[in-house]
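Apologies for my clumsy wording, but could you write out the amino acids of a protein and the tokens describing how it folds?
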Amino acid sequence: MTNDITENLPDEVIEKPFLIRVILALSTVAGWCSASMILIAVFITCQMIFVRSVFNQSTIWQTETVIYLVIAATLIGLPFVQKVRGHVNVDLIPLLLPKRIRYFLALFTVLISALIVAVMFWYGFEYWHIALKKNWVSDTVMEVPLWIPYSALPIGFGLFFLQLMADFFSLILKIESPFGLGDK
């Protein structure tokens, strides 16, 4: 059943509930944080290359820091990529399905994704908590407290779960069309 008021309006025109707008804003902030971490990692890599090639010095902290930044950027960037539908998807099957079945397939897909991400969040949180409680540090010269880089697991998967829930409720409330296909 379609809503006659919102049937022909683009997604940007339809007023989204406050909670969904908050989640979308969090996903945008996560995207900016992720992009910043990648940019910082690039600058550190350039600095590392300069120090090694010009001054012929060894690097101590750069490689480990870049690795942690890129992993954190990947995890924390998940909700933003979901928000902008940047994940790889194949829409051949949804295009071939009738609208009603496409709608239920989209609901099923989002719920299964949310379930998997919730499990990842749970184990990521547990892993982070163990590292914090037992004061784990990296086996390097820097001896980084591992709860810091491991915090990207619950943060990234938690925000990703929230974004999936926003997508789910946007489908339920007919704010967004299944798979972003509109009337195709």
Notes: Residues 18-180 form one domain. Confidence is low (pLDDT under 50) at residues 1-6. The two ends are 17 Å apart (CA to CA). Helices lie at 18-54, 62-76, 78-83, 92-96, 99-133, 147-150, 152-172.
